[in-house]
Design a protein that fits this description.
By secondary structure, this protein is an alpha/beta fold. It has a single domain, classed as Rossmann fold (3-Layer(aba) Sandwich), CATH 3.40.50.720. Helix content is 41%, strand content 13%. It has a five-stranded parallel β-sheet. Helix 1 packs across helix 2. The structure holds NADPH dihydro-nicotinamide-adenine-dinucleotide phosphate and the ligand O=C(O)C1=NCCCC1. The site of NADPH dihydro-nicotinamide-adenine-dinucleotide phosphate (NDP) has 21 residues, from helix 1 and helix 2. The site of NADPH dihydro-nicotinamide-adenine-dinucleotide phosphate has 21 residues, from helix 1 and helix 2. Its EC number is 1.5.1.1, 1.5.1.25.
């Protein structure tokens, strides 16, 4: 038996990065990370290694957790006061929160932005609102898996 946390962190961020490599806007200057836990850190590491962003932003429910997140980093990251501020104008958005209700609304998002929606991995968890789910082009790695596990897909009915 081995602890899979480190592998899960790297593997999940790697899959998100592949999605961004294939689907992000041609000009992607601003990266926004919602959440400041383990997945936020692994996504930050992988995304900033592979892509060149002019600005990186982070938002998390508890501001002190955001401050702790950025204190560990060598490059500057902007701590945002709200999800709306964080995602406004962002080209690439990573959602890695433990939210169970939608925190990300369609009306705040720049047209064409790429969202790697990671956190809502249980049938009754949400990160993205219904309008966003309906308006977005949704890509999944497994249709069966998404319809069994993704709260954003199951509860929005897309
Ligand atoms: N799709 C996949 O393959 C995978 C999905 N996951 C999921 O990704 C999410 C993040 O994982 P991980 O980084 O390891 O977890 P952590 O516990 O390390 O971090 C959780 C983050 O979510 C935030 N958060 C918790 N509850 C809420 C809420 N109700 N509303 C908004 N933010 C909230 C926390 O914010 P704060 O500290 O500021 O309160 C924290 O920043 C989890 O939901 C996890 O289950 C994880 C691995 C793989
Ligand atoms: O390994 C995975 O995949 C996980 N998905 C969701 C919750 C934590 C692990």
């Amino acid at each position: 038996m081995m602890d899979g946390e480190a592998i899960t962190a790297i593997r999940t961020a790697a899959v998100s990065a592949i999605s961004a490599k294939l689907l992000r806007p041609l000009v992607s200057d601003v990266l926004c990370i919602l959440g400041s836990g383990q997945q936020a850190r692994s996504h930050y590491d992988v995304f900033t290694k592979i892509f060149k962003f002019k600005e990186v932003r982070v938002w998390s429910r508890r501001r002190e957790m955001c401050e702790r997140f950025v204190a560990d980093l060598e490059e500057p990251v902007v701590v945002c006061r709200s999800v709306r501020d964080a995602v406004s104008g962002a080209d690439v958005i990573v959602t890695v929160t433990g939210a169970t209700e939608p925190i990300l609304r369609a009306e705040w998002i720049k047209s064409g932005a790429h969202i790697a929606a990671v956190g809502a991995c249980r049938p009754d968890w949400r990160e993205l609102d219904d309008v966003l789910m309906r308006e977005a082009l949704v890509y999944v790695d497994s249709r069966d898996g998404a319809h069994a596990e993704s709260g954003d897909i199951i509860l929005s009915g897309v």
